[in-house]
Amino acid sequence: MPIYVVLSKLTDDGRRTIKEKPHRIFEVNKELEAMGVKVLQQYAVLGPYDFVNIVEAPDNETIMKMSIELGARGTVELMSLPAVRVDEFLKIISK
Predict the structure, then answer these.
(1) Cα–chain center distance at 18
(2) Domain boundaries defined on the chain
(3) Up-side HSE of residue 42: CA atoms within 13 Å toward CB?
(4) Which residues 6+ apart lie within 8 Å of 12 measured at CB?
(5) N or C: which terminal CB in the chain sees fewer CB atoms within 10 Å?
(6) Element (H, E) at 41
(7) Cα dist from 31 to 12, 43, 93, whole Å
């Protein structure tokens, strides 16, 4: 199944939500699974983004739907990047 790197930046509303309900992060992960997106790894980071998530989804359309659904809430801005494992990348460029 395709892998994606999802960079998340909280809005002011998102920061308030996390401060008041830190476990909301895990609730959102369950919502993502219901959308067909499985969170494989999740990191809180410093810098221009607040979280880096490695997720698995069946296709780009599922990731687009997830992005619109979460973004419409006004608590987070997302950047989703399709990712290819290095071993698969090497196979692709060796053809």
Answers:
(1) 16
(2) 3-94
(3) 9
(4) none
(5) C
(6) strand 38-44
(7) 21, 18, 36
Which pair of tokens denotes residue 85?
Answer: 């494992």
Burial class (CB in 10 A: 0-12, 13-18, 19+), 54: middle
Q: pLDDT tens track of the chain, all 95 residues?
A: 999 999 999 999 999 999 999 999 999 999 999 999 999 999 999 999 999 999 999 999 999 999 999 999 999 999 999 999 999 999 999 98
Tokens for 26, please give them.
Answer: 């895990």
CB atoms within 10 A of CB 70: 21
Q: Residue 57 in contact with residue 63, Cβ under 8 Å?
A: yes
| CA-angle at 20, arms to 16 and 23, nearest 5° | 110
